[in-house]
């Protein structure tokens, strides 16, 4: 019964996060309406759609208050990064081709190189910063600084000059009480009126509140589910929490793709990963260790976290190479390959998190540990 209840709660949090992020998307689209295509996807959209990862990591740390909380947080952010890199591009490709919009999608090489290389650098930094066994506020600060550098570069690279982007979104209108029950936050704030800067910020704040509330429930549900099936919270977060918090990223990229904004669709996924790795993990780590002191990780946690970081880096490099060397656009075959890679990742995570002795999983785990130890020895 506990398993069904916790899975039901996870599903409810997914719906709340999805609806709340719709409101956040409308507000961020208005506030970022003068940003160039590709820049908005990597900054405004990426930050908005990655708020669930930030809140979930915060709650994992501040609710569990131990090494398990940290492992749950890094499991969510890293697992979400793998989801974003593989599932989101695959969904975009399959939907665009499946609906007959195009037989392939063309993505700017500049966007791929810019965000792909930035993400690989961020993941290398994560490997070298989170070495353990003791973590403090400096580690969190380093990760946050990396994100600020990335955002500064993005804004500077946008250049100067007027950028005219039409803004067409509007609330559905109607009764505000009914809209609140349906999760239509844009109607709650706007009613039948048009959006402006003040209302956009109000919608932003209300959306953040509901996202935070849903993420708190998500952490509780993941903890209950892990206890019910006897799986460490780390592995539950890698699979379930990461997928739940990645719902907004998927929906925003899907909407961009349907409008033909393929650069923004992919830039959102890659930019979200940079936010997840650097800020959604860095800020909670910074705040928690500043308040409660250093986090002391067990040998098992260090091993699991080390393997996940290496797996994340390898996955990102594979996806990056697929995008860079895809001739004549990205097609359905590439989408199927990305889906297969994610299925293998989930299978590995579940196999690693269970008590069963699976030879293939053990061999992969040993290989990842060797690579992780090699990275550590470089420092």
Automatic annotation (TrEMBL):
Residues 6-155, 200-350 form the Sodium/calcium exchanger membrane region domain. Keywords: Membrane, Transmembrane, Transmembrane helix. The chain crosses the membrane at residues 6-21, 42-64, 76-99, 111-131, 137-156, 200-219, 231-252, 273-295, 307-326, 333-351. GO terms for cellular component: plasma membrane. Its main location: membrane. It comes from Flavivirga rizhaonensis. Pfam families: Na_Ca_ex. It is found in: Membrane. It is a multi-pass membrane protein. InterPro entries: K/Na/Ca-exchanger, NaCa_Exmemb, NCX_ion-bd_dom_sf. One of its GO terms (biological process) is intracellular calcium ion homeostasis. GO terms for molecular function: calcium channel activity; calcium, potassium:sodium antiporter activity. This is Sodium:calcium antiporter. PANTHER family: INNER MEMBRANE PROTEIN YRBG (PTHR10846:SF8), SODIUM/POTASSIUM/CALCIUM EXCHANGER (PTHR10846).
């Amino acid at each position: 019964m506990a398993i069904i209840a916790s899975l039901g709660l996870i599903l409810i949090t997914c719906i709340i996060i999805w609806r709340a992020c719709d409101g956040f998307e409308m507000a961020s689209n208005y506030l970022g309406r003068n940003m160039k295509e590709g820049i908005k996807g990597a900054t405004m959209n990426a930050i908005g759609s990655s708020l669930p990862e930030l809140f979930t990591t915060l709650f994992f740390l501040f609710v569990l208050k131990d090494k398990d909380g940290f492992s749950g947080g890094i499991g969510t952010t890293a697992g979400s990064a793998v989801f974003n890199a593989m599932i989101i591009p695959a969904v975009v490709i399959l939907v665009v081709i499946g609906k007959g919009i195009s037989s392939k999608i063309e993505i700017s090489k500049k966007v791929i190189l810019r965000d792909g290389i930035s993400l690989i650098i961020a993941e290398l930094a994560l490997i070298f910063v989170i070495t353990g066994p003791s973590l403090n506020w400096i580690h969190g600060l380093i990760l946050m600084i990396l994100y600020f550098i990335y955002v500064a570069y993005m804004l500077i690279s946008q250049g100067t000059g007027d950028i005219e982007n039409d803004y067409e979104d509007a609330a559905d209108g109607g009764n505000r009480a009914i809209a609140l029950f349906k999760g239509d936050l844009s109607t709650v704030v706007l009613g039948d009126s048009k959006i402006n800067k003040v209302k956009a910020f109000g919608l932003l704040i209300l959306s953040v509140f509901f996202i935070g509330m849903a993420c708190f429930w998500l952490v509780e549900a993941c903890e209950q589910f892990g206890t019910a099936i006897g799986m460490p919270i780390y592995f539950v977060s890698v699979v379930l929490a990461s997928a739940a918090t990645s719902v907004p990223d998927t929906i925003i990229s899907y909407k961009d793709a349907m409008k033909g904004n393929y650069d923004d669709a992919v830039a959102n996924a890659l930019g979200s990963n940079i936010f997840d790795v650097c800020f959604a993990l860095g800020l909670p780590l910074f705040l928690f260790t500043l308040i409660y002191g250093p986090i002391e990780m067990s040998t098992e946690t260090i091993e699991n976290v080390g393997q996940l970081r290496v797996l994340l880096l390898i996955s990102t490099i594979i996806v990056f190479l697929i995008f860079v060397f895809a001739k004549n656009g990205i097609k359905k075959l590439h989408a199927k390959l990305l889906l297969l890679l994610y299925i293998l990742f989930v299978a590995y995570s579940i196999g690693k998190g269970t008590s069963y002795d699976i030879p293939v999983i053990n061999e992969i785990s040993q290989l990842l540990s060797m690579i992780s130890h090699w990275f550590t020895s470089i420092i």
